[in-house]
Amino acid sequence: MEQLASGEIKAYFLPPNVTSLIQPLDQGVPENLKRNYRKKLLGKLIEDLKKQRVTERLKEITLKDAVYWIAEAWEEIESTTLQKSWRKILSSEQTLLVSETLTEKDIAEWKNADEQKEIANDMIADMVENSEQESSDDENYVNRKKITHSEGLNSIEKTIEYNEQQEEATPTILKTLTKWRNIAVKERLSSHKQKNIKDFFK
């Protein structure tokens, strides 16, 4: 076992297959992350095979694409998978510590906060319902042209490109836009498959 030391910091190199089996990252988390990442990569490669070959698409993949895919792959890991990874080193029993200084006033404020939250939720629900009603009324007067999946995909890609050039754009915004781009890609592929099946039976 090799060891590097610098002051109070020590680094150890452990050969493969000798790390403890109770470590959280040995409980399937990396496997799930890699599996989700591979799905993103394969989805990109088969996105539109009619226009480009797989080898050509591989050359177009950038480091930025890989970073986005890793972020999305991590978010798609289920919370139960992360919880199970800690079971071997954490007790399943949880002890709730109640402060000795807790008073009846604190409990009353806590209860009132929940009641106020319920009132706020009711107000939000009413606002959403009224907004949907107004939107429904507007649709009766306006006949909107349906945007195709290809048009939507092009618009989202332009929006992503624009936000990447803005200092105000945050990683959260870019990840959200990337998710919508992936949705548009799936919908477009699905519509193409349905069209091809119908043509086949003509």
TrEMBL record:
Residue span, DDE-1 domain: 4-86
Transmembrane segments: none
Signal peptide: none
GO CC annotation terms, alphabetical: nucleus
Gene Ontology molecular function, alphabetical: DNA binding
Protein name, UniProt field: DDE-1 domain-containing protein
Native organism taxonomy: Eukaryota, Metazoa, Ecdysozoa, Arthropoda, Chelicerata
